[in-house]
What we know:
Helices cover about 15% and strands about 40% of the residues. It is an alpha+beta fold. The strands form four sheets. An eight-stranded antiparallel sheet has the order 1-2-3-14-11-16-9-6. The site of fe (ii) ion has 3 residues, from loops. Fe (ii) ion (FE2) binds next to loops. One of its GO terms (biological process) is DNA alkylation repair. Keywords: Dioxygenase, DNA damage, DNA repair, Iron, Magnesium, Metal-binding, Oxidoreductase.
Amino acid sequence: MSNQKLLFDEDNQKVVFDLPDAEIELSNNFFSNEESDELFRSLIDSIKWQQDQIQFYGKTFNVPRLSALYGDKNKPYSYSGITMYPHEWTPDLLLIKQRIEEVAKVEFSTCLLNYYRDGMDSNDWHQDNEKELGHNPVIASMSFGETRPFQLKHLHKPDLKKIDIPLSHGSFLLMQGKTQHFWKHKIPKTKKKIKPRINLTFRIIKN
Ligand SMILES: O=C(O)CCC(=O)C(=O)O
Ligand SMILES: [Fe+2]
């Protein structure tokens, strides 16, 4: 975040990033440390984590992380060539969803969870722009566990520096407006010995 211009709201709780073609805001400690510790442990144990695979040039690879899809019934979600059917909401997820909806002022139908077991787990450059998410997707992202950098780069403005937002334990990141049309994001790998991290992205599937 070196020379990135930031705007703070009145009580300094929320950081709004001043980026072209994007609406991105970050609240650190959206959940307290104690709540976050509890949720982290509980999610690791209670979520039905699965190992997805992708086809690439005729070969099959394990996706470098575990994932799970939860949400309203009858809302399948297709991304990277995989169609997933959601599990039913759990008490943890409903609690988190409610807290997030108060701030985001929308209702989410679906939550995609990622479990990055160590530094070799990652999420490569992509946009969350699947048709089911509608024209300007609202993506609400909660992180628990190890802090990992969330990197963003503009698709058509190579002169703009890559943005690096550290997503810490209990932090909440909201992306909306045109963000998914103009910016890609990723969680890079690292050789450092680091602890696990869980990320939850709440989304709205419009069907
Ligand atoms: O782990 C993260 O913070 C990002 C996850 C993500 O980009 C996704 O699931 O689409
Ligand atoms: Fe994403």
